[in-house]
Structure formats: C-alpha cells, structure tokens
Predict the structure.
Amino acid sequence: MVIKKTHVLFFLILFFLITVATACSDSSGSSDDSKLPDITAPSWNTGYPESVIMDDRLYFKADIDENGHVYCVLLPDNDPAPSPQQIVDGLDAGDTAAPWHADSEVSTGKPETFIFSNLGYSTDYDLYCIAEDSLLNRQASALKLDISVSERNTIFVSENEGDDSNTGTIYLPKATITAGISSAAALFSSEKNVCVSSGTYDESITLSGGISLFGGYSNTDWSDRDIEHRGNPSYSTCISGIWEENSGLDIEGTNPGSGDWIVEGFTIQSGNPDYSIGIHCIAGSIVNIRHNTIRGGYGENDSIGIYLNEDGTAEISDNTIYGGYSSGSTSNGIFIENTASQIIRDNRIDGGGGDSASYGIRTRTFPVNSNTLIINNQIYGGGSGTSVGISMSHLQDNTNSMPLIFGNSIDGGWDDDNVIITLSIAIYITGLGDTRTIEPVICNNILRSGTGDESYCLRLRDIDNHAYILNNTFHLTASSSKGIVLEGSTNRETAASVINNILFSGSDAITENSNTSCEEIQNNVFYETECLFAYGSGDITDIAVLNGLRPNFSGNVSVKPGFNSEYNLSDSSPSSVTQGGLDLSSYPYPYFQENSSGEKIDKAGTVRTAPWSIGAFERD
C-alpha cells in the first residue's frame, strides 16, 4: 500500500487540532470557579437578623444570602458566651440546654421568624445566632444581639381572638379598644400603650392620660404590621364611631409621661348625624397623629376630619384626611380653633363636600405668640360652593400670629358633575379686626386657584402686618382667576414682599387696593397673565413699566417658565428663570424654609444655591 505525503500531512494537522482543542477544554475547565467546591459560609442579608419585642415575647427574624440553616439560643444577660457548636446544639456555655433555643431551615429572601415567649419583664438577655449553608459551611463566629424586655407597658386588643374578660397580654388580648385603654390606664409603667390588630371596632374611643394607640397589626401575627397600606384587609384597623357620639376618637387631658403620645395606624371615622368628627383633640400635651386615614363622616352640621380646640395640640403627619360631607354646614379636613401651635406635615388633606363650604385646613386661632407650621402637604379645598385649601383667621386683639406655610401643593377646588364652585381659593388669610395681626410666611408652595367663578391663588385681607411670599409657583387655573390679592381697610393695612415667584395664566397676577402696599415685587416670572399688577391708579401690563413703578419693583421678567406637568423646571426653562432669582440666603428662619443643617431648600428639599431659581423648585 502506498501512502502519499499529502495524506500524512492531513493526518498530522488533524491530530494537532484535536490535541489543541482537548488542551483548551481542559484548561477552561480547570479555571472555572463554578466547579470548585463551595467553602464560603453564608452572610446575613441586609437588615437581618432583626429582633422585635412585643409584651414578654421576642420575635427574631433571620435571612441569609443562600439557602441554609439558622441556629439561635437566648441566655440571661452576661452569661458566658456559648461556642458555635453549642449554639447549634441548643446549649449554653456549660453544655446545659439553653432556656430558649431554636433552629430552622431558611430559604434566602424569605425571612424565618423565631418566637421566644414568656420572657421576664424588666429583664435583659443575650441572643446568639449562627448560620450555615446546605453544605455545612458555618459562620466562624456567632452574632450576639442585646435583648431588653421592658416593664409591662402594653395591652393587646384583637377583634378576632379577644375577650374583654382577658388580661390583655399578647396571649390573652382584649376584644374592644375601650377595654384595652381601661386596662392600660391601670398599668404601673411610665409608658402605656394599646396595640390593636386588624378588624372593625364599632366604638367611639376616649383616649387620655398619655396612653398611645397603635393599629395596623395582622390578626394572626403580632410581629406582622403595615401602617402604610391601611386599606389592606390583612392590616386595616378601623375605629368606626357609634351613632350617638360626635367623634370616632376623643383625645383629652395631658401626658404625664416623658415619651411621645401617639395615635398611629388606624382608619378613624364618625357616624354621628349632627357634628361628625373623626378625631377630636382637646389634649394639653402634644399628640403625634400619624399614618392614619381619618374621615369626617356625614354630619348635618359640621363634618371634620381632625378638630383641635381648647388646648388641643398635635403634630399631624403622614395621614390621609377627608373632611366628610356636611349636609347643612361646612366640611373641614383639619379645623383648628385654639391658642396652640400645631405642626401639620406630609399629609394628604381633602376638605370634603360641605353644603355651604369646604376647607382643607381651617384655623380660627386665638394665638398667644403661637405659630402653626404647615409643611409638605397635598391640600385640596374640596367640592362645595365655596372651597378653600387653607383658610386662616385671627380673633384675639393685641396679638400676632405667624403661620409658616412651606413646600405644599394647595388647590382651591374643582367643579364636578355634582357641584358648581362659586368661590375657590388656595390660601385665604384674614385678621378680622384691629390689632389682630398676622404675619404669614408663604414659601416654596405650588398654589392652584381652582375653578370657582371667583377664584384666587392667595388672598390676604386685613392682616395688619407684612406677608412674605417667596419662591412659589402660582397657577391661575381659570381665565378670570387672580394670583395674589392684597386687601386692607382703615387701621388694618396689608403689606407684602413678593419675591422669586412664578405666576402664570388667568386674569390679574397681583392686585392691591387702597389700604395695602406691595413693598417689594422683585425677580418674579409672569406668563400669559392679562394684567401684571392692578392697583389704585390702573393696570400694569408691560413688564418694563412694572419694574420701574416703585423703588423695590425690579428684576421681573415675562417669559415662558418651561416647566413640566409637575411644575418643576426643565431643560427648556430659560436661564432668566433657572438663574434669575434674587439671592435670599440671608433671610433667617422662619422667613425661608431650611433643612436640618440650616441650608435654604426648595419644595423638593434640594438645597438652594446661587444663582437662585425662581419658583418652587431649584434648577441651576
């Protein structure tokens, strides 16, 4: 047989290619880390482990970054630390079974809850926990958590499992909130709490003595709570006031303790057909009303979401508040009728639908050096013939009130299929008498006039003082709407500084009558308004004339602001808007909104920097 040279060459090349390919395959396999044995112990996922104390019960929640097993032991405080193997075996350092120990498989991303019950009140413990994966790679050392069980300070209420003859512990809860409050009052602790699981409680509640009320707990697991999604039936905790009582919840008296007085995590409403009030607060100490849904109901007279009078003092935050519907009078989201300073922040407030008028926030104050801070809320005047976002009046002689209205979105009210609005106002402030002075500071807000036949973004009347109107955005939402209206009368003059605002659309941007004085109109943006400034001698429609009318009338421009649907400045905003504002960094608090570091900020909390933008938002 004859073998040709070409055949030999072919086989040699083929052999070479096979050898190289095999070598490459072996090399690739030897460098593939996925084929190496796993020798890495699991790590705790962010936020875990977590410990929660409820009554004398510890909920320990664990999650790790791979499937595996978690072991834990709970020992008296300052006992010797057990070894990792002793923890796995459920032992203490002396090889005796730990009084509380547990272990469980854990799937990553699905936290496992361990429950240790019947701990001692006013007692400290040490919790040791350690994790290993399915290949038995164990953490080298245990994690230690300090656990402290307070004195008994909480009564538990469950519509699902409770009985008012029970002791009110986490194991034997009460059935009604009223019974829970009564038992909490008898506790010897300095702090007294009532925790309520989901359900509808057909009660009108009276809360006093600083007892705090917490809702939003699952009716199957006291460690499971949600106060944000209050409509979720798993967590919805509703106080539905009875027919005979005006309020769903009355808060009265003072807080004798040093801790906060709190109402949190409920839906609260009234069923009274006369004066229908969600929460009525006459407490002499500050009550934190937060993360609730509060409804005024259907009173023939006033319907009110939250009513503060006499000594009622509150910090109202992160609530949804609806004024209800009054068939014969006014509806009010929040009605303040007292001397106290209030803080209202981060709420959604709707005035409701009163037969005569509706108000998002309404104050009739008798202030003694008192201020009310209204900050970062969404406020809607409601849907009545007269609808007002914020209405403030001052009723005590020889005193001054300084309301601070910062960073809100405020709407006067809108027509719908059932209601035609005659008068809508985003903010209305009046002094109501000689020496009843108000010095409002209105900064970083978005104000919409609403659709009333007569409508205003801001109306100041007889304030007998000076208003500061700084860095707001005014949307005159109807063709006849007015932006800023200053009204005064003899001995009750109204003065104002109007700086760095955007006013657009509608009829008259700024108006003053014979007893008012716009002392400053500086560096504002006017766009598509029929009249820039209406005053006693005529109407100003030319921006150059406005800038030369008085000594402190300057820097104003008439341009399209170029913002988006949220009134935020954009790439299309001209530099005369994004960089044309007057520098207000020297304005002291409380005349300009600041963050916790004392820096001037815009509506979104962004630090204001030079050059300053005009309007509610900063964009250099």
